[in-house]
Amino acid sequence: MATISMHHVRAALHGVTDPTERRRLLVRSGINPGLLRHPARRVHTEQAARLFRNVQLALDDEFMGMSAARCRVGAFRTMCELVCRCRTLGELLPKAFSFYRLLAEDVSFHLAVEGGLARVAVRHRSPERDPDHFLREFLLVIWHRFPSWYLGEPIRLRETRFSYPEPPAHDAELAVMFPGGRTFGWGEDALVFEAEYLARLLVRKPEELERFAANAPADVMTIPGVDDSLERRLMRLLAGREEEPLSFPPVREVAARLGLSVPTLYRRLRQQGTSYQKIKDDLRRERAIHHLVKDGLPVERVSELVGFTEARSFTRAFRQWTGMSPREYRRQLG
Q: What global pTM score does this model have?
């Protein structure tokens, strides 16, 4: 899933009550605050991951202000250190869930096995603190993606259960987030999958786990080995080497390299809710933010590296992406 709906962007900010702080967090995440007025718009998963992380850091709460007690930043990383010697998924899940029970009573995780099926459940004692259901959906995503990553293959869900009484307005989004059947009206939110996954060996090395934990939640936004969408393939084709300037070939050349006609490329991208221009903008924005903030390069050099012929055009585009100029953005993050 390469983009996130505006519903989830809005919902992620529920625990941040100060409007000025909300705006600051959006800008720090590379999201133009003006997009909140357009519910049909979407943001890239990398922008969403930055927003989720920035909200966690601002509140010092990995539950993002949506539970009675904070789950302080660093809990997920500590949990990863605790489970790094587990051999199977069946060892990992009980140990991880026991760890979280020491931290918070309001939100808890449970593993049950019955009739050849495993059920990983999230229970929230104060659901009124999570009115958009964001936290529970976010935690379900984590406990699907993280084990899938650790196993080195996607866990195929038989069913995802929701405590919603009926499908919500963003049900189409849930269909992408949780492949498989969806049912509603349960007393908990849960993932259901074949119990044989619990016996499978965890294939990641400790150093890989450390990198994964340090980069969370960015690496839990996609399922390992599953996101081979046309959009993702096109982004990989265009990305090139980070230290070299981005270069965008004519669309007919791109289509040919993907084995498609130009009309087919346009149609399939449109079906995925994107376009060639939007993919170029996403690449430019993410690369620009990296060079500005992490590399500290001059604006003129960043402009060249992301494929603009003049800095003024780059500054204008960057303002549209984030709501401020490149220099203002860097000052805000400094």
A: 0.80
